[in-house]
């Protein structure tokens, strides 16, 4: 799946035309950098508008990918990067399915957006991902309820490259001020928790790199 996703890098993200908006984002980047937890500003396509050093540090071990780097588009990273599960714990249930649910809601609101349609086409290229999106996701949303779309406040596992954090959890906090919201942006901060205790053997669980299609919430469609 990851090696198929997209044929080219996402188009360069537009800069706000207003000088006042540009100045606001410049100053907001300074504020973002002062935050010790990973924090990122995203547009409605999950393109990264701003990110801080803590966000970049979290993903410093991620290998290169033509279309799914976490610093370019966070949704593409979650869905398509083969290294995503080395940082995002319980990758399928805690990250992929919630992000697919948010993506489905975004498609309903912005159905003609070229960036979202590009992601939709890449989902369709992988049979297991497509089956999860079309069949497994609606079942999961019904089972989970409204909280399936409640990104803010969700607690999700992480595998931080810094051993001071290690295998831990984070709370996803949406702290979008009015001005960012009016620009069509969302700010997401991952509030890290102290590292979990080591396993009984004294070692933390190994990080498994995904080498093939990874969604198992539904079976692959019959040939």
Structure description:
- The chain is of the alpha+beta class and 223 residues long.
- The protein has seven helices and five strands.
- Strands 2-1-5-4-3 form a five-stranded antiparallel β-sheet.
- Strand 3 (155-159) and strand 4 (167-174) form a beta hairpin.
- The protein is globular.
Binned strand content: 5-15%
Q: How many helices does DSSP assign?
A: 7
* Strand line-up of the largest beta sheet: 2-1-5-4-3
Helical content class: 25-40%
Average pLDDT rating: 84
- Could you list the spans in which at least 5 consecutive residues all have pLDDT below 50? 1-12, 199-214, 218-223
From N to C, what is the helix and strand string? Answer: HEEHHHHHEEHE
Radius of gyration: 17 Å
The N- to C-terminal Cα distance equals 17 Å
Shape: globular
Output the keywords.
223 residues; alpha+beta; five-stranded antiparallel beta sheet; 7 helices; disordered N terminus
What is this entry, summarized?
With 223 residues, the chain is of the alpha+beta class. The protein is 37% helix and 13% strand. The chain is built from 7 helices and 5 strands, in the order αββαααααββαβ.
List the helices and strands and how they pair.
Blueprint: H1 19-33, E1 39-42, E2 48-51, H2 53-58, H3 74-80, H4 91-109, H5 114-125, H6 127-144, E3 155-159, E4 167-174, H7 178-182, E5 186-192
Antiparallel strand pairs: 1-2, 1-5, 3-4, 4-5
